[in-house]
Design brief:
The protein has about 300 residues and is of the alpha/beta class. It is built from ten helices and twelve strands. The strands form four sheets. Strands 2-1-3-4-5-10 form a six-stranded parallel β-sheet, with helices on both faces. The relative contact order is 0.15. The model has no long low-confidence stretch (mean pLDDT about 95). The structure holds NADP nicotinamide-adenine-dinucleotide phosphate.
């Protein structure tokens, strides 16, 4: 199986490579060999590789910056995946688009997890660009089973830019930090999500399951609902438990209105994952368990870095 991964240096891209299943040939694309702003060159590469699957995790992910750089965000998050999807459809391969909870505004009155078929209503440019990409992919593949849109949320992992590494860093440097406690969602470890992507790709009876239009969009998050403040507290407690951190930084809960930000974020973005769980016959794991796994990996990487440094 030939799988082309865009954004392979990003946090999900790296996890996908780390958990690559046997007999999978990966074509790892990154900004230097596959600039998503240069669509014609990317299409040539796709054509020459002729992959069985493209996993599109390349994206403009800076939600705040996207507001003042909308053109680039739209080109990377909407125009590029649209063009890749058209090309892979023509070539007869399949497309896995990674999407986001930010296609929703979080404003629904009764706070129940978002179903895959609920109306998109993004609050900012990032969400809008991902939402346009979803619509385009649905349109392109309306008569085929060649695409899956996998929405996820609050990605955390041992590498890249994410909340866990930011909080660890802040706790090293500060006596107290403030974290918002009124945005409700679910963190997702890049390890869990990579595992789900590979499960989808290697799903038996794939054609049968994804022939139904209603199954084109899937959701994945680790189990359980929480908020950023509680995640920060858990990072602090677990890090002390495993010896990753000694800090006694005080974590103070604040509201979103106290935290200056250019762009509004959904106040509630829990995704309903039942459909994915039943299709994949997999129940997933609680977010504190997957978070501990991420922290243990960070600790392992730091230890091996330390031992390399002390040997040299
Ligand atoms: N992070 C989250 O909390 C979150 C939540 C929900 C959904 N998602 C979605 O999940 C997917 C993976 O996210 P992630 O957290 O792994 O993102 P990430 O770490 O920011 O990785 C995105 C990758 O895309 C690459 N990229 C950006 N512009 C590019 C361009 N013009 N040409 C080629 N590559 C380019 C980046 O390259 P550089 O490293 O060179 O910048 C980076 O390696 C994305 O589709 C994202 O929208 C993320």
């Amino acid at each position: 199986m030939k799988v082309l991964i865009t954004g392979s240096q990003g946090q999900l891209g790296r996890a996908l490579i780390k958990f690559k299943p046997k007999y999978t040939q990966i074509y790892a694309m990154n900004r230097s060999n596959f600039d998503m702003l240069d669509i014609p060159s990317c299409l040539k590469i796709i054509k020459s590789i002729n992959p069985d699957w493209i996993i599109n995790c390349g994206a403009y992910t800076n939600v705040d910056l996207a507001e003042s750089d909308a053109d680039t965000a739209m080109r990377v998050n909407f125009h590029a995946p649209k063009a890749f999807a058209e090309e892979i459809k023509r070539l007869g391969g399949k497309f896995l688009q990674i999407s986001t909870d930010y296609v929703f505004d979080g404003k629904k009155e009764i706070k129940t997890p978002y179903q895959t078929n609920e109306k998109r209503s993004p609050l900012g440019i990032y969400g809008l660009s991902k939402s346009y990409a979803e619509e385009a992919i649905e349109e392109i593949f309306q008569d085929s089973h060649q695409a899956v849109i996998l929405r996820t949320s609050w990605l955390v992992g041992p590498v890249g830019k994410n909340f866990v590494l930011t909080i660890l860093n802040l706790m090293l440097k500060n006596k107290e930090i403030k974290v918002v406690n009124d945005q409700i969602g679910s963190p997702t470890s890049t390890f869990s999500l990579a595992n789900i992507c590979w499960k989808i790709i290697y799903l038996k009876q794939y054609k049968f399951i994804f022939n139904q239009k209603s199954n084109r969009i899937l959701h994945w998050q680790d189990n359980g609902e929480t908020n950023w403040y509680e995640i920060a507290l858990t990072i602090s407690n677990l890090s002390k438990e495993i010896g990753l951190l000694k800090s006694n930084t005080k974590i103070i809960p604040i509201t979103t209105s106290e935290f200056p930000s250019i762009v509004k974020r959904p106040s509630y973005s829990v995704l309903d994952t039942k459909l994915t769980k039943s299709l994949l016959k997999y129940e997933g794991r609680y977010w504190k368990i997957t978070l501990k796994e991420v922290l243990e990996k960070i600790q392992m990487d730091r230890k091996s870095l330390y031992s390399i440094k002390s040997r040299s």
